[in-house]
Amino acid sequence: MSGITDVMGVLEHSRLIKVIGFLLASIGFGALLAWAGLVTGCAVGWIGALTLIGWALLARRHWQTLYERNGTEPGAPERVTWQRLAGYSLIFGHMAFSYFNPQIDLHVGSGNYLAIDNWALILGLVVSAMLFRADRRERDERDDQISALATLWGYRSLIVLLVILLTFIGYLPPDLQSIFNHFVIGNLMVGTILLSLITRQAVELLLYARDSLRPL
Predict the structure, then answer these.
(1) CA-CA distance, 109 to 129, in Å (whole number)?
(2) Burial zone of 50 (CB within 10 Å; 0-12 exposed, 13-18 middle, 19+ buried)
(3) What is the spatial distance between Cα 89 and Cα 128, in angstroms, rounded to a whole number?
(4) Is the confidence at residue 1, as pLDDT, over 70?
(5) Considering only CA atoms, which of 55, 126, 125 is closest in space to residue 93?
(6) Which end of the chain has less Cβ packing within 10 Å, N or C?
(7) For residue 75, what is the enclosing H or E element?
């Protein structure tokens, strides 16, 4: 029995690493796109959008192969969660690059394509989500329970992040007030919402992983 417990612990740990690695890779790719757009002075958001759509197509093919081979593919709701985590993380990574460079003007027509690129990534998220629209209708009681718990964690993370952000804004040093104007603060709040959505999707994937490891 202890051997089975040890194996399950290793598998759960590996799935945790998989979710975190996927999350960090998506965020990093989004930040890399923002950096590339500034360096080249070109609109590169379409690259991220096409990459997201391409990943969705390849992921579906991979999961179909797993289904035909041994039936170990993720269930329909879990596939939707992977797609959302990929899209939200990519967009957040792109936005996060500008958060750490508040001197960059994000307005359209300010000399860079960051705002346009961000909308291109959002379009890629919408298109890739259409590839999973049939999966959203396949749910059971287990999926509803996991979704409810993940949503609770998402709300909790949003509250914590908002408290941190509001505290930061309330005690903002005078020399930074000109940089963190209403537009920048508004984008920070959007980023806060994105982080809570990312937290929700990541927790949901971890809950699916834990549930799949339970002994029958």
Answers:
(1) 29
(2) middle
(3) 14
(4) no
(5) 125
(6) C
(7) none
